[in-house]
């Protein structure tokens, strides 16, 4: 026991202010740091689960988790200083070293960390939003300390640095609401009753449960095409992203096909009429294969 006490009280170094740091203090400090990190991790996970069960907004949940995590770390830091009997004035040297580190190598890390807090406070992008950045479209799943995780429409996860989410152009489809405008284009044969076509197109779009009545659905006779009379149906609908829009457009096209078939309207397809002009009759023969 005396031998253990000897090693436990063995002085490792002496601070400039006078206190001696022993091996036992260092061991206890490391143990407290480990337990502190575990408690902070466990508390944020526990709060996250309880808040999700209570149907709290995921953005609020993540913000609370961060506050709890970093608050415990601050308390842990102060506790460690007290255990090692390091005065607060010694932090001047530490802050200077951190500033040098930031200046030489940690600029991006600090930038992304601060950008993450800005994203969570100003909320230009929130968890669950459908966003478009460059040519990528997807749903925001996590706004982390360093990066934002986006699940693209093809299922691939995209990690975007938080600073890029603030510095680059980000299209947020669901920032204000989940209302989208979309269109379906249809071509019918020349000679078709265009007012009936307009009526059927309005009916097909209006019947869908996700299309909105306000703003109203509009049918536009767009053009005289090479092979068809071109009509566009403009409508507003409720969705959370491109997948829902595609499904809504598909449902409306199915219904248009059914209504046209019931009313004898033919959807046009590319075709050519060939006219032959000859001074003498053209002989046409057929042969059996």
Provide a descriptive summary of the structure in words:
The protein has helices at 2-8, 23-53, 58-83, 91-104, 107-122, 162-167, 194-207, 242-262, and strands spanning 11-14, 20-22, 130-133, 136-143, 147-152, 157-161, 170-172, 179-188, 218-224, 229-238. Strand 9 and strand 10 form a beta hairpin. It is built from eight helices and ten strands. The model has no long low-confidence stretch (mean pLDDT 81). Helix content is 47%, strand content 21%. It is α+β, with helices and mostly antiparallel strands and 289 residues long. The strands form three sheets. The chain has a five-stranded antiparallel β-sheet with strand order 6-5-4-3-7. Strands 8-10-9 form a three-stranded antiparallel β-sheet, covered by helices on one side. A two-stranded antiparallel sheet has the order 1-2. The chain folds into three domains: 2-105, Helix Hairpins; 125-172, Roll (SH3 type barrels), CATH 2.30.30; 179-262, Alpha-Beta Plaits.
Tally of domains: 3
- The dominant shape is elongated
What's the average pLDDT?
81
Which architecture of the largest domain would the CATH scheme give at its second level? Orthogonal Bundle
Beta percentage is: 15-25%
- State the order of secondary-structure elements, H for helix, E for strand: HEEHHHHEEEEHEEHEEH
Describe this structure in a few short sentences:
This protein has helices at residues 2-8, 23-53, 58-83, 91-104, 107-122, 162-167, 194-207, 242-262; strands spanning 11-14, 20-22, 130-133, 136-143, 147-152, 157-161, 170-172, 179-188, 218-224, 229-238. By secondary structure, the protein is of the alpha+beta class.
């Amino acid at each position: 026991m005396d031998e253990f006490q000897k090693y436990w009280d063995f002085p490792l170094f002496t601070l400039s202010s006078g206190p001696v740091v022993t091996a036992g203090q260092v061991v206890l400090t490391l143990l407290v740091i480990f337990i502190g990190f575990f408690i902070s991790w466990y508390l944020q996970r526990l709060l996250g689960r309880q808040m999700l069960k209570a149907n709290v907004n995921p953005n609020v949940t993540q913000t609370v988790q961060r506050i709890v995590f970093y608050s415990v770390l601050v308390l842990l830091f102060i506790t460690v200083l007290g255990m090692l009997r390091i005065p607060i004035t010694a932090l001047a040297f530490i802050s200077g070293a951190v500033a040098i580190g930031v200046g030489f190598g940690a600029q991006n890390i600090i930038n992304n960390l601060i950008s993450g807090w800005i994203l969570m406070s100003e909320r230009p992008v929130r968890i669950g939003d459908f966003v478009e950045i460059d040519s990528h479209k997807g749903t925001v799943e996590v706004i982390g300390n360093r990066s934002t995780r986006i699940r693209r429409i093809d299922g691939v996860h995209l990690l975007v640095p938080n600073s890029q989410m603030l510095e680059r152009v980000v299209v947020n489809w669901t920032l204000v609401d989940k209302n989208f405008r979309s269109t379906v284009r249809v071509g019918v044969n020349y000679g078709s009753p265009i007012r009936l076509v307009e009526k059927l197109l309005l009916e097909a779009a209006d019947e869908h449960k996700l299309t909105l009545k306000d703003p109203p659905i509009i049918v536009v006779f767009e053009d005289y095409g090479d092979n068809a009379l071109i009509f566009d149906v403009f409508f507003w609908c409720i969705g959370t992203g491109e997948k829902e829009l595609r499904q809504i457009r598909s449902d409306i096209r199915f219904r248009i096909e059914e209504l046209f078939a019931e009313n004898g309207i033919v959807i046009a397809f590319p075709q050519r009429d060939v006219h032959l002009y000859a001074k003498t009759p053209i002989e046409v023969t057929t042969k059996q294969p």
